[in-house]
Amino acid sequence: xxxxxxxxxxxxxxxxxxxxxxxxxxxxxxxxxxxxxxxxxxxxxxxxxxxxxxxxxxxxxxxxxxxxxxxxxxxxxxxxxxxxxxxxxxxxxxxxxxxxxxxxxxxxxxxxxxxxxxxxxxxxxxxxxxxxxxxxxxxxxxxxxxxxxxxxxxxxxxxxxxxxxxxxxxxxxxxxxxxxxxxxxxxxxxxxxxxxxxxxxxxxxxxxxxxxxxxxxxxxxxxxxxxxxxxxxxxxxxxxxxxxxxxxxxxxxxxxxxxxxxxxxxxxxxxxxxxxxxxxxxxxxxxxxxxxxxxxxxxxxxxxxxxxxxxxxxxxxxxxxxxxxxxxxxxxxxxxxxxxxxxxxxxxxxxxxxxxxxxxxxxxxxxxxxxxxxxxxxxxxxxxxxxxxxxxxxxxxxxxxxxxxxxxxxxxxxxxxxxxxxxxxxxxxxxxxxxxxxxxxxxxxxxxxxxxxxxxxxxxxxxxxxxxxxxxxxxxxxxxxxxxxxxxxxxxxxx
Length: 495
Prior knowledge:
By secondary structure, the chain is α+β, with helices and mostly antiparallel strands. It has helices spanning 2-47, 49-52, 59-95, 98-104, 109-151, 279-306, 322-328, 332-338, 341-407, 414-438, 444-467, 475-494; strands at 163-164, 170-177, 184-191, 200-211, 217-230, 244-257.
């Protein structure tokens, strides 16, 4: 009975401790996740700034862009947020001597980490579910929106004192502008819509530029000017003179195609792309196209054999022909010496032509196979990425928690520096593996799991050291070890 009375308070105390650890971690984790998403989102927005600036789209379209972009960076932000959150949580516990008190009470580091191990495992499963179900939808909507923005004409805002190239096929220069009336002064327009050789140049004292009521056309009204049109296409054959046409006008009106409305692309254009598929669809597509690529490769091999590769076009050997005589004898060098100079030339020419022909055939076959093979690689890379990024959440926890316990520093100072350095290390390895897999230098599974293979031993090592209270970052301990090594080396030299 006494033993039972002792077990209940101990169980209750452990439960309260686990709840306290979970509160400490998730209060930091949610904040770091928002910060990481914001940083990665700004990096993504900056890489697509040209697709957003100067397009004149509404707030609702920009809001959609930011929402879909934020959803797209969450799988990459999660591991970084977990790493930083674990570092800060256990750094704070160590700095406040709470971690030491728990260990003094007989609670090991692994037991302290247990509730978080379960929680992060659930987060990893949730991250996979997000990447598998939500991410394909957000990626399709995001890239459809980006493609639509790229096709939209830029907002009509002609600057002063420089050429404006926002209208396809035209360059417009305006020296000054009357702010009250909107009248443009000293205008110069280069019209390349009919090609560079048939360019038209127009200059005017003043003019106005405005959109039609349906926003489909741009209307230019020019006053008191001249136009010069190059008529190179109408040049008389045999003549070096290029005709041109000069026109003086008091008023001239131009109507230019300029669709300023924002029209969305159909999302179905991305239905067969790897970004739009979950894990099962990626695997099915990769397997299906692999069968097609294998059948193409088999057919190519059969065709190369059918074209009588290596001089098989001679079923019956005629020693009068140099190529056939080369096949009839095993001693090629001695046979070559028996040929006359003319026969040698014929044999070398024939062999060179055959080699060139087969080389061209091999290059053509490689080009034919490139697209399906690239399609399979990208699908398999994306399939492995869904799993590797989810597992990275758990690995980063086993790096961040022991590192925080060993370093013993909380706050946003040391943890941020260490986590950023570790994440950059991870990103370099992961990105290098991705590029090697994309370029077919490695298999997709090798490229996408190399970062896990590197970081997992580091996490195991750090967890082991932290669990055994290793002085991994203790300078005095390292100096003592160095002194011992120096003494041993001196003894060996003296002995």
